[in-house]
Amino acid sequence: MLDQAADLDRVFHALADPSRRVMVERLSAGPASVSELGRPLEISLAAVLQHVQVLEASGLIRTHKTGRTRTCSIEQAVLRSAESWIAERRTLWERRLDRLGDYLGGTAGPADTGPVGAGPVGPHTNDPLKETR
Amino acid sequence: MLDQAADLDRVFHALADPSRRVMVERLSAGPASVSELGRPLEISLAAVLQHVQVLEASGLIRTHKTGRTRTCSIEQAVLRSAESWIAERRTLWERRLDRLGDYLGGTAGPADTGPVGAGPVGPHTNDPLKETR
Fold first, then answer.
1. Cα(B109)–Cα(B120) distance, rounded to whole angstroms?
2. Does the CB of A126 have a partner CB in chain B at under 8 Å?
3. Rounded to an integer, what is the distance from CA B85 to the centroid of its chain?
4. What residue in A sits closest to B37 (Cα-Cα)?
């Protein structure tokens, strides 16, 4: 869903503010009106509305207005896309660590094999841990 | 690990930039030097260094210098903390949807039970879907 860089920019930017995270937290328990979202925050209604706009522009929430009440709810798929982006990078890194463990466990290891992070290991170096699949 | 709001602010802010995400992506395959990180990006070395500083300040990466080379690597626990923050909110929301499904499946439902997001449902309303555990 969030395959475009600009979308992820907006989602992570939206999550980088503590007031907006309080709002997402509240909305994860169910839909809420804008004034309900603002209640735990010591900020003006105008500021609450701005935060709601940032969240809506990011796709993390959607809103709809009935009479004078604007109700907000979580857009689960967007939350999941941001989570997946992080999870995929973390998983790659963990697989690398696993391969390092296998490599060190399976060989005596050359004397110059330092710990992870001991030196630059670029995609073009002859890295025994390089993804081969 | 990231129990303080300011930490999550910094992590999500760091991830809100496409160049920094390219760097995290590269680092998820293994440690890299600053110049290696900058290679796929059409930006100055000064700009690369600034991005590295933002990433390091967020805790997402750590760096160490050997001679003239600064090597960067992922700080997996911080990546995981950001992922967990999102996952917990998403899970709460999904549990709510599950309860809604159970509720609608188990009863004929009162006439005024609208679809999810049809009206403000605050923590103080008499919400049949409220977490009871």
1. 18
2. no
3. 6
4. A122
Residue B65's H or E segment, with its range, is strand B61-66
Kindly list the distances between the CA atom of residue A94 and the CA atoms of A56, A80, A98, B27, in Å, as whole numbers in the listed order: 33, 20, 6, 12
B contact residues 26-45, partner A, Cβ 8 Å cutoff:
26-33, 36
Tell me the pLDDT tens digit for each residue of A12-58.
Answer: 999 999 999 999 999 999 999 999 999 999 999 999 999 999 999 99
Sheet holding B61-66, edge to edge: B32-33, B69-74, B61-66
* pTM for this prediction: 0.76
| Summary mean pLDDT of chain B | 83
The yes/no answer to whether this complex scores an ipTM above 0.95 is no
Integer Cα distance of A45 and A37 in angstroms: 10
Indicate if the pLDDT at residue B69 is higher than 60. Answer: yes
CB B22 within 8 A of CB B41: yes
Structure tokens at A9: 């920019």
Please provide the DSSP assignment of B10-60 as one string. Answer: HHHHHHTSHHHHHHHHHHTTS-EEHHHHHTTS-S-HHHHHHHHHHHHHHTS
Query: Residue B121 carries which side chain, given as an amino acid letter?
Result: V
DSSP B4: S
B59 Rama sector, left if φ>0, alpha if ψ -120 to 50, beta otherwise: left
A118: chain B residues, CB-CB within 8 Å: 31, 71
Separation between Cα atoms, residue B1 and residue B70, nearest integer Å = 25
What is the pLDDT at residue A107?
Answer: 67
| CB atoms A74 and B64 under 8 Å | no
